[in-house]
Design brief:
It is built from 7 helices and no strands. The chain is mainly alpha-helical. It has one domain: Ferritin (Up-down Bundle). Helix 1 runs antiparallel to helix 3 and helix 5 runs antiparallel to helix 7. It is elongated.
């Protein structure tokens, strides 16, 4: 199948829509889980102000959509690499939403941290996989890598400086 502009631009719209859905889902899961438990947590001194999170995620997810589109439009030249990259893309969508669910809705930052470490690994694999197809696509993931590294540091700090109930097996 040859990917033409008539197919590729609607694909960019679909990828953008998936980013918007992820942003809205993450916001909804966050809002659903906010409460006294969250505001009583100790937060790291390096945590950005709350107003910065939504614009940061808009930038991250916009770059993700464009980056993934740049990979998909090269399917004719790199079909195996594109398929693997898209599998990683799907995994990170699920893991990204899962983190919001675990951290906020389930109120388990400790479990969310482990899930976030998996997401970190998937994102790094995405950078490598995207880079095999398009250097620009890999470069466009840089804001996501930076934001996720900061998120992991914040989550880790919260887990280390707050206490959470022990899970019973």
């Amino acid at each position: 199948m040859k990917l033409t502009a008539s197919i590729s631009y609607p694909l960019l719209a679909v990828l953008s829509a998936l980013s918007i859905i992820l942003l809205l889902l993450g916001g909804w899961l966050t809002y659903a889980g906010l409460g006294a438990w969250y505001y009583e947590l100790d937060f790291p001194p390096f945590q950005p102000p709350p107003w910065l999170f939504t614009p940061a995620w808009v930038i991250v997810l916009s770059c993700l959509a464009l980056s993934t589109w740049l990979v998909v439009v090269r399917v004719n030249d790199h079909s195996g690499s594109v398929a693997f990259a898209l599998a990683l893309y799907g995994a990170q969508l699920v893991l990204n939403a899962g983190w919001s669910l675990l951290f906020f809705t389930v109120q388990r930052p400790d479990i969310a941290l482990w899930e976030l470490i998996v997401l970190d690994s998937v994102l790094l694999a995405m950078v490598l996989a995207y880079g095999r197809v398009s250097k620009l696509a890999a470069l466009l993931l840089t804001p996501y890598v930076i934001w996720l590294a900061l998120s992991t540091a914040i989550n880790s700090w919260i887990v280390n400086y707050n206490s959470f109930p022990v899970l019973n097996a």
